Amino acid sequence: MNNANKASAYRTNDKWLEAFILELRMQDVSGKVIGDAVASAQELLHDSGEQAYEMFGSPREYAASLALPKRQAPEWNRHGGIWPSMLGLLAFVVFNTSSTALLRGHDVMLTPVQVPLFAIPVMLVCTIPLYLGAIIRNRWILSAVLALGAFGAVFASLLTPKSPADAWLVIAPLPLVIIGGIGLIAVATWGTVMTRQEMSEHLIQDPITGKTAERRGESLTIRIVAFWMLPALSAVLFAVTMLNR
């Protein structure tokens, strides 16, 4: 993308500042520090009368040049609960596969054809570092990743063999149901607590008024509901399977 096209992406200073805030969040800078950086940029823009892109360059480059201090938080407790979402996907796969087998009165049976489908959510979790930046910049990608993993698990369940003789691997379902169920609840609870803490730390604080504001376009309630969607979907699938067995 040439400079003209980059500049056109930030036609207004507000657009540039939104992108600047996002880049600072990706660096895991606290809300108070972000507020100071934004206020400083706004003051310089007001005094100069220039456009943000012309004065500072791209938001990513300017954010990197500031080298602001990061939050003191463990790696798993960063970036809006992405890790809990992915771990919840694994628990979803384990619970729904094993609970379906349990309700139908047979073991969890796997064939070589199913393995690649069940491997999808595992690979999605293991490769998070490769597309973490894309998820943070485009939250819809996380929804797409979760949907892909859930689709793989549901489709694999439809290919369950009829008898152990046709299976490549046979596992008792009850321990997996317990592990998967506890995992779903634990991950959703963990994600809820993490999200409340993370969003509280990321509230942008105006250095002059001291007022704080949530990230634009994000809601604490929506994000917490998202963590409980997989447990809710699991409960629905469990009920449907029980009624149709």
Q: How would you describe the overall organization of this protein?
A:
Keywords: Membrane, Transmembrane, Transmembrane helix. Strand 3 (204-205) and strand 4 form a beta hairpin. The protein has two domains: 3-66, no CATH class; 75-244, no CATH class. A two-stranded antiparallel ribbon has the order 1-2. Strands 3-4 form a two-stranded antiparallel ribbon. It contains twelve helices and four strands. The protein is mainly alpha-helical and 245 residues long. 30% of the residues are buried.
Task: Quickly list its features.
245 residues, mainly alpha, 2 domains, two-stranded antiparallel ribbon, 12 helices, 4% strand, transmembrane
SSE layout and pairings?
Layout: H1 3-8, H2 13-26, H3 31-48, H4 52-56, H5 59-66, H6 82-103, E1 108-110, H7 114-126, H8 128-137, H9 140-158, E2 169-171, H10 173-202, E3 204-205, E4 212-213, H11 220-227, H12 229-244
Antiparallel strand pairs: 1-2, 3-4
The fraction of residues in strands falls at under 5%
Shape: elongated
Low-pLDDT residue spans: none
Q: Secondary-structure element sequence? A: HHHHHHEHHHEHEEHH
Main-sheet strand order equals 1-2
Overall pLDDT, averaged?
A: 76
Structural class: mainly alpha
Structural domain count: 2
The value of Rg in angstroms is 23 Å
Number of strands: 4
Count, helices: 12
Concise synopsis of the structure shown:
The protein is mostly helical.
